[in-house]
Amino acid sequence: MAGTDNAKVKELVLKCMQAREMAYCPYSRFPVGAAILTADGAIITGCNVENASFGLTVCAERTAIQRAIAEGHRKFSAIAVTCDIKDSFVGPCGACRQVLIEFGTDWVVYLTKPDGSYKETSLKELLPLAFSPAHLGH
Ligand SMILES: O=c1ccn([C@H]2C[C@H](O)[C@@H](CO)O2)c(=O)[nH]1
Ligand SMILES: [Zn+2]
């Protein structure tokens, strides 16, 4: 991505993998990690947090964005996401795509595999024709 050097992307990928280790997922046993790079260079991580009332589960991506907002960040450059699937790059669920696009269409999404390889995509690509704050005049 323009403006994000390779070393920073590698750091982001490493951080999302470390975050995956923290996942609380006793029901699915499907750990997910996310790491958000803010416009000012901070990295904020998240993991999925499940609940015995299954519908209350929060995905890694949304955990990360809630943390980032709560810590005062509003501008984001990139997010890296990882799960344990080795043979394909897996994107965020639809709910997470909508929550991420609330904070801009221009940030980069890195889908990663457990071996550290990654594929660059974008929120525009992941959520075409999105409903966004612009439609409410924001
Ligand atoms: O984008 C996604 C999709 C799923 N999960 C979590 C939710 C649940 O804990 C587990 C299985 O769906 O993976 C995420 O964290 N992010
Ligand atoms: Zn999700």
From TrEMBL:
Any GO molecular function: cytidine deaminase activity
Q: Where is the CMP/dCMP-type deaminase domain?
A: 7-134
Named cofactor requirement(s) = Zn(2+)
Cited SUPFAM superfamilies: Cytidine deaminase-like
Annotated active site: 61 (proton donor)
EC id: 3.5.4.5
One family name in Pfam for this protein: dCMP_cyt_deam_1
Q: Tell me what reaction this enzyme catalyses.
A: 2'-deoxycytidine + H2O + H(+) = 2'-deoxyuridine + NH4(+); cytidine + H2O + H(+) = uridine + NH4(+)
GO CC, any one term: cytosol
What are the UniProt keywords, alphabetically?
A: Hydrolase, Metal-binding, Zinc
Q: Which residues bind Zn(2+)?
A: 59, 93, 96
Swiss-Prot/TrEMBL GO biological process terms: nucleobase-containing small molecule metabolic process; pyrimidine-containing compound metabolic process
Q: What does this protein do?
A: This enzyme scavenges exogenous and endogenous cytidine and 2'-deoxycytidine for UMP synthesis.
Q: Please state which protein family the record places this protein in.
A: Belongs to the cytidine and deoxycytidylate deaminase family.
Q: Kindly provide the name given to this protein in its UniProt entry.
A: Cytidine deaminase
Query: What gene name is given for the protein in this entry?
Result: zgc:103586
